[in-house]
Amino acid sequence: MVLNQASLKRDGVQDYVSLRATAIILVLYTLFILGYFICTPEVTFDSWKGLFSNVLVKAFTLLALVCIAVHTKIGLWQVLTDYVKSARLRAVLQFLLYTLAFGYVAVGIFVLWGV
């Protein structure tokens, strides 16, 4: 059997691994932010700004935003294909929700990096 690794089509294994990988990164990011709140006695604007002035925190936040978008894309595709039977309605909902997820990442880039 020949497998075409250059194909752009998704398969169940790729979706499964992508969901699990993005979930792990999102849990790590959540634990990081919770740890910051627990370890910082008083969270002020200046302390919050100081946290996000670090390039590694910005990169980790951007990674988390991209992971949210990927996780959302796969999850919405699975839910919409299971519960929305009309192909047109499903396509419209997918377009709107994927555009919203992309918008969140775009706004995150502008907020984080001051582009």
Automatic annotation (TrEMBL):
Q: Which InterPro entries match?
A: SQR/QFR_C/D, Succ_DH_anchor, SuccDH_FuR_B_TM-su
Pathway connected to this protein: Carbohydrate metabolism; tricarboxylic acid cycle
Question: Main role?
Answer: Membrane-anchoring subunit of succinate dehydrogenase (SDH).
Q: Which cofactor does it need?
A: heme
What species is given as this protein's source? Answer: Rheinheimera marina
Q: What is this protein called?
A: Succinate dehydrogenase hydrophobic membrane anchor subunit
Cell compartments where the protein resides: Cell inner membrane
Q: Keywords for this entry?
A: Cell inner membrane, Cell membrane, Electron transport, Heme, Iron, Membrane, Metal-binding, Transmembrane, Transmembrane helix, Transport, Tricarboxylic acid cycle
Report membrane topology. Answer: Multi-pass membrane protein
Query: What residue ranges are annotated as transmembrane?
Result: 21-38, 50-70, 91-113
Pfam families, per the entry: Sdh_cyt
